[in-house]
User: Fold this.
Amino acid sequence: MSPTCCHSIFTSSVGRKYIMAITGLMLSGFLLVHLIGNYLLLIDPALFNAYAHKLTTNPLIYGAEAILILIFLTHISLAIKLTLENRQARPQKYYVRKLSGRGATWASSTMPYTGILILIFLVLHLIHFKYGALYYATYDGVEMRDLHRLVIEFFQLPLHVAIYVATMVLTGFHLSHGFWSAFQSLGFDHPNYFGLIKKISLLYAIVIAVGYSFIPVWVYLSPYIAGGTH
Amino acid sequence: MSSSKNMTLNLKVWRQKSKDAEGKMVDYQLKDVSPDSSFLEMMDQLNEELIAKGDDPVAFDHDCREGICGMCSLMINGRPHGPEDETTTCQLHMRKFSEGDTVVIEPFRARPFPVLRDLIIDRTALDTIMQAGGFVSVNTGNAAEASAVAICKCDSDLAMDAASCVGCGSCVAVCKNASAMLFVSAKVSQLALLPQGQVERRDRVLNMVKKMDELGFGNCTNEKECEAVCPKGIKITNIARLNREYMSAALF
Assistant:
């Protein structure tokens, strides 16, 4: 290992982009696993509650949560630092600035803003669910939190559904730039595969946005759909 | 869009007396601009009128006027080097504009590119990055026999593409973060791809990135505006190469 290794990775512009990329990809992975877990909700309340119970009572969860928090904090704090530096790099603004139409997209130009909105959502999300109302259910003599009931009740309010869906759409935009951008920052540019990475990036963003949004919409609408039950 | 008749243009030009003076946009109406003139000839025409009136001419950078020196700059209607793809300001023709158009002309803006006067900026920062590693200092002697060291055409083509960067700074000017990554990546790539560049390969990328950061350029956010406006068509695949070069140099 070179003597400049760790210092230059943590201080240089290029090195810090690696950290943004790696933490971003890890968070992308987390989102996918979380999404799969959420769908148990629509399959069977008992299954969803049992899954959540198994997850939260596993002693390894504390380590996993600590790592997850560390990844989030690294990604967020570094993003804020880099964005502030970028602002300082052009003290005098242009009188007219026109985008080429072939570079920046709405998603790429709003990364700091979508990022901040996702952060606010994340705090509310933890307050509403992880630290939300404590309902209990008992399956086969084991008492556990009835998170299913909490979710169903929460999404009876149209405002909750609207905020949740809006944030998931914004998250989709954030990911559509962030996902392929991570590969670019880490140096992937293979002529045969880069187009594929961009397509996967878009597909992934749509899966996350639509996948997460579907659940609250379904929970809200299902009483109105003939024969639909919770 | 193009017309053979001479036109009248409404110019909005950034005027600034000196580095520390306050600058402002000043309106000029310029009549009788030939569509066959180049953008810089239009600027010359404006300056002749200003001089005739006893005003200070607009200071702007230019040298070869044939698109190869990288000296001309100018942000024209919000785009470096104006509306034409892969074209420097000096090679831009007034036939790309129409009668009565408003043309906004500003200097390239970035913290490391201070405005010296009007539209002239100090791009020494790019030279300073080059001095940090954008060279080959091994003595290669006389020109070697061409087939002695075989170089894949695939690599020499990529090196040549990267080497077409004229260092004008339009990538910095257009980047919302004023990042110099496209410039630095082109300079790193042109040497990293060829045998002559191997000896200093590791130090080159570390030192050039370090210097780039010290000079106050922003961080790349992969938006590709630089690639879209580069007058030499430098691709961001060079930035990916720089990222790879830096990783292997920093870690191993």
In short: Chain B touches chain A through 55 residues (CB under 8 Å).
